Amino acid sequence: MNKKLQNIDISAGKLLDTLRRFPVALFSAYLFTIILIPLATFSYSQKEAFLYYNIINKISFLASIGFFLFATLRLISRNYLLLLFGFLLLVSYYIYLPENISNLDRLLTEYLLIIFSLLLLMIASPYLTHSTSNLKFWNWAKHIIFSLLLSIVFGFILFMGLTGGLYITDNLFTLKDTYQYVEQIGLFTVGIFGSYFFLSQLPKYPRLLPVKPYSHIEKIFIKFILTPLFALYFIILYSYTAKIIFLGEWPKGVVSVTILLFSTLSILTYLFWTPLWNRENQKYKNFFWWAIWFQIFVLATALYLRVEPYGWTSSRYIIAVLGVWLFFISLYFIFYKKASYRAIFISLPLLLILTLFSPFSANNIAQKSQQERLIRLLSQESNLSEESNLSLRYNISSSIEYLYENHGIESLLPIIPQIVIAFKNQDNEIQNNEISKKGCISVPYQNFTPYATEKLGFKNIDQWEWEEYNRAISNQKFKILKKPRVFTRFYDYLEKSNIEVRGYDWLISFEYFEEEGNYPKYCPPVNSSSEKRVTLKPKFKIETKRNNIEIKEKNIDLATIDIKAFIDNIITTKKETNVKKIHKNYYEPIIFSQKEFTYHFENNLIIVKIIFDNIEVSGKKTISNYRGTILIKKK
Description:
4-stranded antiparallel sheet
């Protein structure tokens, strides 16, 4: 019993000791967890309605960074001025960030690079002002890496155990909505358990950490897993390089990321071999750095091919900076015999921080480059329209999308000020609209890009549409294909575009695909008094065919509706505003109003209203697919 009490006392003492050593770092982790655990139960609409959500979201974001920042500062020194410096950095970053950080795509990359930089500085922190041998430095670095990996593994085991217990409890006691606690368990595992366990593994005096030889398992990992992986990536990458040279091909964009992964694997393999270098294998030390150095030229070529036509983006700029760093660090280790490992763990994070926060940051360079590119694109044609070059329309769309998603709408204000101001004011305009006052549904544009391109005179073309177009062009090199024609119902959100259901008892969605054939569709009924869906057993069965729609009740045929004549009339109708779009490409449909896209049918059993959403006709003028909604009333 005394031994158990002694073990408890030791564990409690270790907990208190870790709290005393890293109070601010653990406070940051716990603040992050305390904020996000209740927010995990909020729906998207509740978060949007919550007055202080943006502020709390930013605080939790900074708290997660604060854990690594204050742990690093504590390992450097116990000086309280460093803590004050850390608080000033976080406050400055809070001011630097926009009010709403939820929709910034670039922020995830920025966040990961900050955490990665702080981890590298954490490794270097005990030796910033004290030189040491590479063997001793790597001994400490390896301890940090393994402590982090161990925290992740143990945290994952704890998470799986707790969620497994939740699943069993849910099934045994028939609880409801327990799925929402899974995210909270994950936050607890990371923010409370993971943060404490990781810091508890760090010795009080890192420079006194004894150097131990590799265990048998560690040697197996290095010699039979890590090194063969390096060899595999080396063969793949240099085989591809040989293909480029001998066949005269240009490197593909994906090769940039591949080279960075290969370089990371090369450096890790080199570092893990540190205690194993001897006279026999010493001659292979520089091989890893030469392997990296030669690939930098392929990386530079691949980057040039992307930057020249499309300009700089944050990711391309960061890849370029990493390429420059790899070039010089490789030369440093190749030609300087006393090269120190500290150079890796100090130079790289400092360079990344400057890349993120300086006048020459990735954000500033990418924004300026894309703004200049958009200005050049807009100047190529004074009157943009659907008749403008498809490539030009796609490039303008993608450039606006990139600036809006990564740098905010303000980055587009100097280029298309009238469109930006109109977009910002649209909510007020809709609220003052007479249609809105009558209680009709009105939904503004949720994304700036389609709004902007429409104001410029053409429909937005996203990346998927552009790739499909190029694929179709490529296919036509071997076989002439007649493009399908698409007819669609227009949704005007400034007018009443919802479906009128009064007088009908059931609302059923339907669709037909030529490749898949017909199949039944079920839908809950619409209660005519409340006009809300209620859950009842399926009453009707809809079977869609190329030229007709069959409606059945159990095994009784209620109607077979011939829609061929109606669709033939649709596809032969000339629309004045859309005549020029016909046969142009798949993604420019011919627009019809809801009234034009509605077909009425009645027999002695039922009254039916069919509202089509979309009709597609193949090159042979046969119906390839359609979809819509059917309203049914039994007599």
